[in-house]
């Protein structure tokens, strides 16, 4: 059994998205889902599959990661990402990088080529230079739509008809044919955020987690609440130590733990047996899943 699930953020403003725009998102999600799944079909690792899927999500300006990332209060992009290998629970993460075209690639480089887990800012970008990771001008990440969102936020209005800030993030979780789990998450954060703000995406156990024999998790939502809830690890611990089914553990986190704190968002997760759970407490979540038994789904609303 091999399985891949992806998400492109939660918190859809339904009455602001045209049917045509829904179609754009569905086509993009399907294309990225199939590309990542092809890695698994060819015998590739779960780590490779989530890397490919998240890199493609970062390159697509429809989503809040990489090109098309939400902008800070200064109008710049600061990006965060993490990746975790369930085989040995190694992880790599970067935060507040401003010139790394694909932060998930640098996060994987941290995992594989450094003794560290989390690097931030200029130190992370210095490692990217040494590792041959592509750097780009910060203007590369900025789109006209995200610029309009920033101006709207500064005027106290809600953003445009893309993923509603602050819930936009992208991620992927996978189980490969060898039984190995992996998770990756990447984000531009929240529109109009303070310089240096870091959310849950690059925090292992908050927005990203994977452990063989248990589950792989990627979250999307209001990062401060996911950090306080240690959301991804909460799900894994509920499965491993309390014996909850994955779907029940995800439901508990999304509909009880986060709301108790005041948080909004969603989660995708894959269990050791290939079970997929995708749940959210917002109007919608951009998501897709595909497995070797023939299941393929792409959805935005319930």
Overview of the structural elements:
The chain is of the alpha+beta class and 302 residues long. It is 35% helix and 24% strand. The strands form 2 sheets. Strands 4-3-2-6-5-1-11-12 form an 8-stranded mixed beta sheet. A 4-stranded antiparallel beta sheet has the order 7-8-9-10. Helix 1 runs antiparallel to helix 2 and helix 7 (231-242) packs across helix 8 (246-261).
Structural class: alpha+beta
CATH topology: Glutamine Phosphoribosylpyrophosphate, subunit 1, domain 1
Q: Assign the CATH architecture.
A: 4-Layer Sandwich
Molecular shape: globular
Strand element count: 12
Secondary-structure element pattern, one letter each = EHHEEHEHHEEEEHHHEEEE
**Main sheet: strands, sense, barrel:** 8 strands, mixed
Number of helices: 8
Strand order of the largest sheet: 4-3-2-6-5-1-11-12
State Rg. Answer: 17 Å
Head-to-tail CA distance between termini: 26 Å
The low-confidence runs, each spanning 5 or more residues with pLDDT under 50, are: 159-167
- Considering the protein shown, what is the CATH homologous superfamily? (Glycosyl)asparaginase
In percent, how much strand structure appears in the residues? 15-25%
Overall pLDDT, averaged?
94
Domain count: the total is 1
What is the name of the CATH class?
Alpha Beta
Helix coverage percent of residues?
25-40%
